[in-house]
Amino acid sequence: MAAAMHIILQRRNEQRKPPRPRVFRDRCNPLDGLTDVEFIARYRLPKESIIDLLEMVRNDIRRPTSRSNAIPEITQMLIFLRYLATGDFQSECADLHGVSQPTVSRIISTVVSALDARLKNIIFPSTNEDIICMKTKFFSLAKFPGVIGALDGTLIPILAPKEDEYAFVCRKGYHALNVQGVVDTSLRFTNLVCKWPGSVHASFIFNECKLHDVLREGNIGWLVGDSGYPLKKFLMTPKLNPKTEAEERYNRAHAQTRVVDERAFGVLKSRFRCLHKTGGCLPFSPEKCVRVISVAVKLHNLCISRKIPYTAPECISTTEHEEENIVVQDIQADRGGSLQRQRLIQLFA
């Protein structure tokens, strides 16, 4: 009996596959062991772009210490990018990278401040060459002339602040920041206003921003925006209750031109899930939330510039974004805006 059991066990051992050798990664260099595709899926950026960002802010995030080994700068950068990409609890990011939750919180503060100060790629066209190029690209979308940007806004959920809490409650009933953006045809943000509480209306934000004064004084073209914005000589809105075929065609061309802003916000929130409500909310003070949103937009522009493939699990649909942000209002238009829109309508006759 014993001999038979010995033979059976021996055969089982012979049939058993040899164990896979364990792979010990170099924790000092976390870039090893993953491909660019895997890095983009986890951190939204390939290795080369992450290294470029790291070199940009390395001196700002380095922690001089003689007590023990400080967390490497590359690990700090990956922790921050992972939080932006997934919107996970900070404890999840901590477990993934072998640090504590308070350490993750400090790293986010350090890296976001450094990137916000160093990365400057939100640029509105200012030269005649850039303006003409922008108008040509927008005209190719739906034959709508003179457009230099698409204007829209979105709500970014945040944790209820300790001061002036009521001012941050948006019309949807949650605490948020109301963010205004202008984008071009490639979904790149050319202007960003990120400082107003969720209760502030989009038209007020636009009237108070610096771009409003630049467009009013420059006479370089116009933006296209939804009916939640006031009609101005430099901001074209849809024609409410169109009655002629020309007005119908104007509205269709306007919608096809303006949709790039809705798509840009959708891709931004889907690429960096911490900005979308499915990721919960930004658990920081309003001032820190502003920096996180600003850096997310700058990294989005970086992805557009470098043509980094978009590999997030799913994109926020345009319809969802539109329902979230558009509040149609019959806002009284100025005379210059009405005359300019009527001239454009005649072009579609």
Instruction: Quickly count the helices.
Output: 13
Helix content: 40-55%
Main β-sheet, in a few words? Answer: 5 strands, mixed
What is the number of strand segments? 5
Q: Tell me the β content.
A: 5-15%
Question: Which whole number gives the mean pLDDT?
Answer: 87
**Global morphology:** elongated
Low-pLDDT parts are 322-330
Rg over CA atoms = 25 Å
Write the layout of secondary structure elements.
Blueprint: H1 2-15, H2 36-43, H3 47-61, H4 73-86, H5 90-97, H6 101-118, H7 128-142, E1 147-157, E2 176-183, E3 189-197, H8 202-208, H9 210-218, E4 222-224, E5 235-236, H10 245-271, H11 286-305, H12 318-325, H13 335-347
Parallel strand pairs: 1-4, 4-5
Antiparallel strand pairs: 1-2, 2-3
Explain briefly what this protein structure is:
With about 350 residues, the protein is α/β, with parallel strands linked by helices.
